[in-house]
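Record Conserved oligomeric Golgi complex subunit 4, 840 aa.
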Amino acid sequence: MAVNGESRKSDDAFDSKLTDQFFHSKVTPAVDMDFVNGCNLLKKKVEIPKGKLRAKPEKLPNLKFDFTNALKELRKEIDLKRKEEEGIVKEIGEALEKASIDSGGMDVIRSFNLAVTRLNNQMTLVESDAKQLANNLKIISGLADNISGKVCTLDIAKGRVVECLQRVSDLMDLKTCAEGVKAAMEQEDYELAAQHIHKFLTLDSAVFQMRDQVDAKDAGQSLKYSYEVLLEATAKLKTIIETRFEEAVKTDDVASLQRFFKLFPLINEHLNGINRFGRYLCEKIRKFADSNFKVMMAGGTDDKRRNVLYTDSLTLLFEGIAREIQVHEPLIDSFYGPDKMLSLIGKLQTECDKESERIIEEFIKDRQYETKAKLIEKFLRNPEKYTSEKIDALELDVMLSEVTLMHTRAKLYWRYLRRRIDAADLKMDEQRKDVDKEDMDDIEKQKQEELKARDRKERERKLDNLLNRSLLGTRMQELLGRYILMEQYYLKESVAKAMMMEQKDADSLTSSMLDDVFFIVRKCIRRSISSSSVDCVCAVLNNGATALEIDFFNFLYAGIKAGYSSIGWTAEAYQTAQTAYNVIQHGKTVADAGPEKQKEVFITSLNNVRFSIDCIRTLKKGLVESFEKQFSWISELENGKLESALGQFDDLCRKFDNAANNGVEKLCTAAFRPKLKTEAELYLDINHTLSETEFAEFEAVEPFVDNFIASLDKLLASFEPLLVPRNYEELLADVCTEVMRQMERVVFKCTFNRLGALQLDREFRSLTYYLTNISGWSVREKFLRYSQIVSIINVDTVAEAVDFYQQLQRHNRLLSSEEARKTLGLRNDFSTDQIKHANF
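=>
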C-alpha cells in the first residue's frame, strides 16, 4: 500500500509538473472553445431592450431577428478553431515525444492522458453551467418580451383614454362657451365673449368633426347647435369690434380704442387689428407732420436755426413716430406678441416715407440742391468750358453741413427702429426657451432650429427692405451721392484757394498754407463722419487723400523740383541768365526771380513737405479717435472699409518722406558738394610721406582736418536755423556721406608711408569724432567703407592687411578684393610684388 501511495504521489507530482510545463509553454491545450466563442458572440450581438413609454403607441413594434450573418460568422470561426485544433494536436504529439525522450523512458503519454481527463471533466461542468445560464437567459428574454408587449398595450390604452378625456373636456368647454358667449353678447360684455370665442377657436379640430356623428334630441345639448352658435357669435363679435373701433377712432376716444384693439387677437384677427391700429397711428402722424410742415414753410420759429430748418423738420417727424412706437409697444407685446411689432413699424414707415419725401423735396427746391449739383458735375468734367458758371465753394458750406445732419437724423431713427425690433426678437427667443422641449427627439429639435434660422433670415430681409430700401432710404442715398460730388468740389476748390494765398511769416520755417489745407481736409472728413454713413466717409477720405497726393503734393514739390541755387562762378553765371529770362518773360522783379528767392522757395518747400508728414499723422490719429466714438456700432466689414481708407495716409507719409529726402539730397549736392570738393582738394597739397619730425609737428597742429572741420561747421551752422529738425538731421546724414565720398576720392590720389598712414588714421578719427558729435551715433555706419580703407592703409605688413580683410564679415565687407589691393598700393613702402601676390 505504501508503495502504491508513493507511486500515486509520484504520478501526481509528475502530472502536475508536466501540466505546469505544458501550460507555461507556447503550446495551447486542445480545448473545445466553440461553445465559449459562441456564447461570447451571442453576448456581443444580442441585447435585451429596455422598456420605455412610446410617444405614439398605436402599433406594436415589429420584432424580427435575423441570425444569417451571425451563423456565417460562427461557421467561419468553427473552421478556424478546427484548424487550430489540428495544429495544437500535432504540437502536443511532438511535445510528448520530446518529453518521453527527456524523461528516460517514463510513461509520459499515460500521465498526460490522466491530466487531460481531469481537465475534460472540469470543462464538462463548465459546459453544463453555461447551458443552464443560456436557458435562464432565454426564459428571462421571453419574460421581458411578454412584459414589453403588455406595457405597449397599456400605453396604447392609456393614450386612448387620455384622448377620450380630452374630447369630453372639449365637448364640455364647447357647451360652456356656447352658453357663456350668448349671455355675454346680450350683456355687451365683449371681453368675456371674446374670451369664450378664443377658447372655442383653440379647441381641437377633431371635436368639430363629431358634430354630424353625435347629436342629442335636445337642441340645447346638441354639439352642432353649440358649434353654430359660436360661429355666429364670432362673426357678430368681429363686426361689433370693428365698428366700435372705428367709432373710437373718429371720436378720438383713446380708452375705447385700446379696449377694442385688445379684442382682435382673441378672435384670431391679429393682422386686422394691426392694420386698423396702424391706420389710426398714421393719421396721427399725418396731422402733426402737417402742422410741422406749415411751420417749416413759414421759416421756422427760430431765425438762428434757418440753416438747419429742414433737418429740424425731419427730426420732429422722426421723434413723433418714435414716440408713438414707444408708447404703444407694451400694448403690442402683451396682446399681439413681439413678432407683430415689425408689421406695425412697416405701416408707420410707409407714412414716414410720404412725409419725409415732402420735406426733402422742399429742401432740394429751396436750397437749389439739384441745380448746384449738376453745375458742379459739368465743371468737374470740363473745367475750361464751364469757367463762367463756376460756383463759389463757400456757398456750399452750409448746405453740405445740413445734408449730413439730415442723414444723421435718419440714421439715428433707423437705429432706434432696429433696437426695437431686436428687442422684440429677444422676447420671442425667451418665449421659445420657456417651451418644454424635453419630449422632442434630436430630429425634431434640428427641424425647430432650422425653422428659427429661416424665420430670423426672413425677418432680417424684411427689416432691410423696411429701412434701407424704403423711400426715405432711397432719397437719403441720392442726397449723399450728390453730397459726395459737391464735397469733392468744395475740397478741391478750397485747397486750391489756400495754396494761392500762401504766405510765410518771417519767424516761421513753414508757410501758413499748411494749416489752411489740413484744416480744410479735416473739416470735410469730419463733416462726412457726421453723416453716420461709412460709405460716405470712405468716399470723402479717398477724395481728401487724392487732393493731398496730387494737387497739394505737386504744389509743394514744385519748389523742390526747381532746385537750390548752386555755389560757384559757373552756377552763378547760369543763375544770372535764368533770372534775366524770368524778368523778361514773366514780368518778375529781380528780387522775385533771383537765386536768393529761389533758395528761399526751395527751403520753404522742403520744410513744408517734411512738416506735412506730421500733419498727416496728426490728421489720421484724430480721425481714428473720431471713428472709435462715432462708429462703435458698425460691423467688421464696415470697420475694414475704414481701415483700408485710412491706410492711404500711411502711403502719403511715405511719399512725402521720400520727396523730403530727395530734396535734402539736392540741397546737399548743390550747397555742400562744391564746397566740400574744394576743401578736400587741399588734402592733395600736403605731404603724406612723413618723417619723424613732420609726424610730430602734425600731432601738434593738424594742417588739414582743423580747417576742413571749421569750414564744414560754418556751412552747417548757416542751415540749422533754416530747416525743421528732421530735415536738418537728414542733411547731416547726407553731409557725412558726402564727406566720406570726397575724402575717399582724394585719398586714392595720394601715397603714404607708415607714418603717413598713422597720420591718416589720426585725421580719420578726428573727423569721425566731430561728425558723430553733431549727427549722433546713427551715422557711424556711413563711415564704414572709409574706415576699412584707412585700416588697410594703416598696417605694418601686407600680411596684416590680408588678415584684416579676411576677418571682415562678408556682409560688412564693403571693399572688393581689387579695391583692397588698390588701397594697399597707396603705401609706397610696400613691395609691388607683395601687393600683387597678396591673397585677398
